[in-house]
Design brief:
Helix content is 31%, strand content 25%. The protein is an alpha/beta fold and 102 residues long. Strands 3-2-1-4 form a 4-stranded parallel beta sheet, with helices on both faces.
Length: 102
């Protein structure tokens, strides 16, 4: 089974670390046969959101997870969610905003 998690972000440099770390902490990453795809959809933030998110790339790759960051202007939160859903390839899709955590 493949799980896609989508995080929508905009100017979230102060909160996105906690969000990303909460995804990394999930036990399903250790279950055999479970793949993780993590998509961060950023609305062209003016702060360091993308740079903070980029710091986690190696950790996701070490765990065998797909990790994508897309940063471009969008039409707001729902446009960004729909963009993430269109890009997701998982059997199950979850949305976790950039100031939330699992």
């Amino acid at each position: 089974m493949k799980i896609s998690i989508i995080t929508i972000a905009f100017n979230s440099e102060n909160t996105i670390s906690h969000t990303i770390e909460s995804v990394l902490a999930q036990s399903f990453l250790q279950l055999s046969g479970t793949e993780l795809e993590y998509l961060i959809i950023d609305g062209a933030s003016k702060d360091a959101t993308v740079e903070v998110a980029e710091r986690y790339r190696a950790e996701f790759e070490r765990k065998g997870a797909s990790y994508r960051i897309i940063s471009e202007p969008d039409g707001g939160i729902y446009d960004a969610m729909n963009k993430g859903i269109r890009l997701a390839t998982g059997d199950v899709i979850g949305i976790l905003n950039s100031d939330d955590w699992y």
